[in-house]
Amino acid sequence: xxxxxxxxxxxxxxxxxxxxxxxxxxxxxxxxxxxxxxxxxxxxxxxxxxxxxxxxxxxxxxxxxxxxxxxxxxxxxxxxxxxxxxxxxxxxxxxxxxxxxxxxxxxxxxxxxxxxxxxxxxxxxxxxxxxxxxxxxxxxxxxxxxxxxxxxxxxxxxxxxxxxxxxxxxxxxxxxxxxxxxxxxxxxxxxxxxxxxxxxxxxxxxxxxxxxxxxxxxxxxxxxxxxxxxxxxxxxxxxxxxxxxxxxxxxxxxxxxxxxxxxxxxxxxxxxxxxxxx
Length: 278
Ligand SMILES: [Mg+2]
Fold this sequence. Notes:
Layout: H1 12-19, E1 27-31, H2 51-61, E2 66-71, H3 76-83, E3 90-93, E4 98-100, H4 112-131, E5 136-139, E6 143-147, H5 153-174, E7 179-183, E8 186-190, H6 196-207, E9 211-216, H7 222-226, E10 233-237, E11 246-248, H8 254-269
Parallel strand pairs: 1-2, 1-9, 2-3, 9-10, 10-11
Antiparallel strand pairs: 3-4, 5-6, 6-8, 7-8
Helix pairs in contact: 2-8, 4-5
C-alpha cells in the first residue's frame, strides 16, 4: 500500500483504527462541518470545507457500502448553503432536530409556542449583539445562535454572559422550554430538544451501518462521541477534553484521514480482498 505524504503525519494508532473499518459491512462516515471539514472564519456564511476534504468526502460517498453524512448545529438550509454536498450525502442539522435522509424527508415544523419563543429569543439576542461589536446573531430553523468569534475576548465573554441571561428572560416571559448550549465562542439556543448523539442514532438506524466514523471539534460533538460503541471510531479535531478515542490537531489533517478511509474501503470493495462482498 502506498503511503501518502499527508498520511505519514497521522498517529499510528489512528491509522490502525481506520484500517480496522475495512471489514465492516456498511460504514457510516459522519462529519461535523465547522471546525472539522471547514476551518473557522469570523462570518459563518463564509465557511467552506477544505477542498481536499470535500473531494475525499465525495469519493467516499461514491463507494458501495459507505454512507456519508454531515452532522451540524447549523440549520439544514445554512448547512446546504456552505457545504453544498453531493446528493448522496445525508444531512443532520440543528444538532439533530432537522434531518435530510433523502428526497422524501419531511421538514421540521415548529408549533405556535415554539415559534413565539424563537421570535422572543431572537429579538433578545439581537439586542445583546447590538451592544457588543463583532458579535452576530444567526437565526436557524429551530433556534438562534449568538456568535462572538469576531469580537475581542473581553467583549465576547460579556456578550455570551448577557446573551445567556437574555435568553433565560425571554424563555420566562414567553414560556419554554428553551435549550441552551455553550460552544466555542457561541451561545446556541434551540426550541427543539435534540443532540448530535440522537442524530447519529437516526443515521445509524436509517443506513443500517455496522460501524460509524464520527469527527467533530466542539462540545456539542461530545454527544456524538458518547453515542459511539465498540467498533466505532470517534475523532476529535483540535484541543479540549473529549470522549473521542482519537485526535487530530486541526481541520488541515482531516483530508489525510478521509483519504485513508477512502483507500481502505476501496480495497474492501475490490473482488478477492478480505471483507469483499463478492
Ligand atoms: Mg464544529
